[in-house]
Amino acid sequence: MTVNLHSRYKEPTLSLPGQRNYMGTSLDNLFKIREAGSTVRTEIIAGITTFMTMAYIIFVNPAILAQGAQMNFNAAMVATCLSAAVSLWDS
Do residues 53 and 64 lie in contact, with contact meaning Cβ atoms separated by under 8 Å? Predict the structure, then answer.
């Protein structure tokens, strides 16, 4: 087993003898992640974080609106989902 520390700006990679990181290489080639100054690991963590945040907001925001503004919970959930979708439309 080899631990390769490229530099302080690149993340360490862990590989077994004879193995290559094909998934990271494929994603990097497809999305040009290194050219943008990031790494595959950073982008995957950012995606998971964004998903978890949106999943949290979809349930918490309607609960707040239903309790504080006396809105229907289901209507507030639909409005939250639609506003999230519309906000991503132009991105």
Answer: no
Q: What is the pTM of this model?
A: 0.62
**Which parts of the chain are beta strand (E)?**
2-4, 13-15
- For residues 20 and 15, what is the distance between their CA atoms, to the nearest angstrom? 7
pLDDT in tens, 67-86: 999 999 999 999 999 998 89
Residues contacting residue 30 through CB under 8 Å, at least 6 positions apart = none
Q: Please, are residues 28 and 10 in contact by the beta-carbon 8 Å criterion?
A: no
Asked if 54 and 77 touch (Cβ cutoff 8 Å), the reply is no
Closest to 41 in 3D by CA, of 54, 25, 60: 25
